Amino acid sequence: MERMRKLALALTAVGVVGLPMTTAATAHADIPSVQVAISTYYSDWVRVCGWNQYDNKVCYNHLDTPGSGYTRLSGWWWQKDSTVTITGTNSNTGAVRNMSCYIPKNTGNPYYCDGRSRKEL
User: Fold this and answer.
1) Are 24 and 37 contained in the same domain?
2) How far apart are CA 40 and CA 109, in angstroms?
């Protein structure tokens, strides 16, 4: 009987401790976020880093960019009113270029990060 009481007490303690963690994780899912679409001039693939919809700093490590038009980074969501950092690489030369792309609070989905017209990426 004593063994059962200790087990019940332990399970109750785990449930109480686990509850705030679960609640905190789901609260961030409501952070306004968008997907990004990226255009490049020099780079044929990019790495994108920034804050996601769960308020975590994350990076997407390899998005192929064709060099014309925009490539949408599907399935990844970036916080509005924040900046993503984009690092582009040219596979032929190894040249690396960087740019920042600010995502305004009042913007639609996707948000377009233009590294092509300014020849930043």
Assistant:
1) no
2) 19
The model's pLDDT over 30-44, given as tens digits with 9 standing for 90+, comes to: 799 999 999 999 999
**Token pair 């975590």 is at which residue?**
56
**Mean pLDDT to the nearest integer, 100-105:** 97
Segments forming the whole domain that contains residue 58: 31-114
> Are residues 80 and 105 in contact, defined by beta-carbon separation less than 8 angstroms?
yes
**Quick one: three-class SS letters along 38-59?**
EECCCCCEEEEEEEECCCCEEE
- In this prediction the pTM is 0.72
Average pLDDT over residues 1-17: 42
Measured between its terminal Cα atoms, the distance across the chain in Å is 69
Same-domain pairing of 78 and 107: yes
Residue 109 in any domain: the answer is yes
Report residue 118 as tokens. Answer: 């300014």
**Which tokens sit at 77?**
């969501």
